[in-house]
C-alpha cells in the first residue's frame, strides 16, 4: 500500500492523540477505505512529517502520533511565481504543477490581457479553491511546507516589493537563464494567454526585473511557466 500523506492545519507532537478533520476523515475512510491499525503521514506546514497510527475510523478518525522527522524535500531556491490569471482549469493546472516543481509562493496577477475578471464577491472563493489545489499538490509531491496562494495582485503592487530578484518572461527578450547570475531567491513574472503588454514589460524592466528568454519558440502561458520553473530549479535549486 502506498504511503498516505494528509495535510491538516493543526499542531502535532510525538505521543499525542489527535483527530482528523471532517474532510480528511472522509477521504481516508470513505474514499481510500484505509484500514485501522495502519500508519499514515500527516503534516501541518512546519517542515516536518509526522507518522501516525489510525486508531479508529468511526464517526471521527483518531490518530496516535508515533514519530516526527524533518522533511528535506524543499529546494534551495526561494522561488515566487507571479502568474497572469489564466482561464478555467488552466490556472488550476498551473498551480498544481508549480507546487510540484517546488515554488514557494504563487501570486495570481491581474494584468492587462487577462481574460478572467474576478468580481470581488468571487475572489475569496477562488483563492480558497486555488489554495486547496496547492495543499493537495504538497501532499502528493511529498512536501511538508505549504505554498501560499496570495490575493490577486496588480503589477504596480508587485513592482513595489523589494529584494525580489525579478525576471519578466517574454519572447522578445535576448538573454536566457544561463546569462543570469545564480541566486537563492527569484520572482518569475509571466503573462496570461495574451502575454504581457509592452507597457507591462517596460514597467517591469524599469523596476529592476530582468527580461528572460526561454528559447526560439513562442510558448503558451502554462508551458512557459512550468518550463521556466523547471529550468530555474535545475540551475539554481534542486
Could you characterize what this model shows?
The chain has 238 residues and is an alpha/beta fold. It has two domains: 5-70, Ribosomal Protein L25, Chain P (Beta Barrel), CATH 2.40.240.20; 78-236, 3-Layer(aba) Sandwich (Alpha/beta knot), CATH 3.40.1280. The chain is 32% helix and 26% strand. Helix 2 (88-100) runs parallel beside helix 3 (120-141) and helix 2 runs parallel beside helix 6.
Task: Kindly list the characteristics that best describe this protein.
238 residues; alpha/beta; elongated; 6 helices; Alpha/beta knot; seven-stranded parallel beta sheet; 2 domains; Ribosomal Protein L25, Chain P; five-stranded mixed beta sheet; single chain
The structure class reads alpha/beta
CATH class descriptor name of the largest domain: Alpha Beta
Biggest β-sheet, characterized? 7 strands, parallel
Average pLDDT, to the nearest integer?
A: 94
Counting DSSP E segments of at least 2 residues, the number of strands comes to 12
Query: Unreliable segments (pLDDT under 50, ≥5 consecutive)?
Result: none
Would you identify the CATH H-level superfamily of the largest domain? Answer: SPOUT methyltransferase, trefoil knot domain
Number of helices: 6
How do the helices and strands follow one another from N- to C-terminus? EEHEEEEHEHEEHEEHEH
Helix share, percent: 25-40%
Amino acid at each position: 500500500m502506498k504511503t498516505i500523506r494528509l495535510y491538516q492545519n493543526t499542531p502535532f507532537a510525538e505521543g499525542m492523540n489527535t483527530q482528523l478533520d471532517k474532510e480528511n476523515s472522509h477521504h481516508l475512510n470513505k474514499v481510500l477505505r484505509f484500514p485501522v491499525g495502519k500508519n499514515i503521514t500527516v503534516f501541518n506546514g512546519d517542515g516536518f512529517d509526522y507518522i501516525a497510527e489510525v486508531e479508529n475510523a468511526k464517526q471521527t478518525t483518531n490518530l496516535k502520533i508515533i514519530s516526527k522527522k524533518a522533511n528535506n524535500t524543499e529546494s534551495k531556491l526561494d522561488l515566487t511565481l507571479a502568474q497572469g490569471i489564466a482561464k478555467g482549469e488552466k490556472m488550476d493546472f498551473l498551480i498544481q504543477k508549480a507546487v510540484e516543481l517546488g515554488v514557494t509562493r504563487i501570486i495570481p496577477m491581474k494584468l492587462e490581457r487577462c481574460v478572467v475578471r474576478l468580481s470581488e464577491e468571487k475572489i475569496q472563493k477562488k483563492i480558497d479553491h486555488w489554495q486547496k489545489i496547492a495543499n493537495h499538490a504538497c501532499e502528493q509531491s511529498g512536501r511538508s511546507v505549504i505554498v501560499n496562494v496570495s490575493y490577486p495582485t496588480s503589477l504596480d503592487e508587485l513592482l513595489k516589493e523589494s529584494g525580489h530578484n525579478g525576471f519578466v518572461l517574454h519572447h522578445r527578450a535576448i538573454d536566457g537563464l544561463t546569462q543570469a547570475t545564480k541566486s537563492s531567491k527569484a520572482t518569475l513574472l509571466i503573462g496570461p494567454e495574451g502575454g504581457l503588454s509592452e507597457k507591462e514589460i517596460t514597467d517591469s524592466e524599469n523596476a529592476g526585473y530582468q527580461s528572460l528568454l526561454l528559447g526560439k519558440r513562442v510558448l503558451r502561458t502554462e508551458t512557459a511557466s512550468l518550463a521556466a520553473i523547471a529550468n530555474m530549479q535545475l540551475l539554481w535549486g534542486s
